[in-house]
Write a structure and sequence with these properties.
By secondary structure, this protein is of the alpha+beta class. It contains 7 helices and 7 strands, in the order E-H-E-H-E-E-E-H-E-E-H-H-H-H. The protein has a domain of 122 residues. The strands form 2 sheets. A 5-stranded mixed sheet has the order 2-3-4-5-6. The protein has a two-stranded antiparallel ribbon with strand order 1-7.
């Protein structure tokens, strides 16, 4: 099934009351915080958002995101493929008090106003939580330079400033320093 673009803003409360499902695509270049992390400019994110209410009549959004992106390996600085397959449930909040009362199994999401939900911001947060803090290839892609790894403690050791004091206490031939 071919998906169209995901709308930027959506009336989330009406969608929760009607228990709607919304699916679509978002380009990674449209998400400012993700754009800087992804190496491939034409990456798209497939999203499925299910709006509903729970037993306590709280407004919920179940978020499912899938994407194939290229990140930069922190070890060798080359591009590497990364799969994102993330699922979470968010509780819609219109006040800080409601966000503080959000149960642990939900993520609180603040609405821009009473009903408006920025879907791109929601997707962006989900992607950022799914990405590794320091992406690395699954194989050893770069080696440490040999000269640094083979240094011994003897070579690295610097002369101690207390060696001068030790020489003074042994009765060296140099005259004491007068102040």
């Amino acid at each position: 099934m071919k998906q169209g673009p995901l709308p930027r803003h959506f009336d989330a409360r009406k969608a929760c009351i009607r228990e709607l499902e919304l699916s679509g695509l978002v380009g990674a270049y449209e998400l400012p915080r993700v754009r800087d992390l992804v190496q491939q400019e034409d990456s798209t994110v497939s999203c499925v958002l299910r709006f509903s209410r729970d037993e306590q009549n709280r407004f919920l959004v179940r978020v499912a995101i899938e994407a194939e992106v290229e990140l930069r390996c922190e070890r060798c600085l080359e591009a590497m493929p990364w799969s994102i397959d993330s699922h979470s449930t968010a509780m819609l909040c219109n006040t800080d008090a409601k966000a503080e009362q959000c149960p642990a199994l939900y993520e609180p999401v603040m609405l821009a106003d009473e009903t408006d939900l920025d879907l791109y911001e929601l997707v962006e947060e989900e992607i950022l939580l799914a990405l590794p803090a320091a992406p690395l290839h699954s194989f050893q892609c770069a080696e440490l330079p040999r000269d640094e790894s083979e240094n011994t403690i003897e070579e690295i050791r610097k002369p101690s400033p207390f060696d001068v004091l030790a020489g003074l206490t042994r009765g060296s031939e140099e005259p004491p320093i007068k102040g």
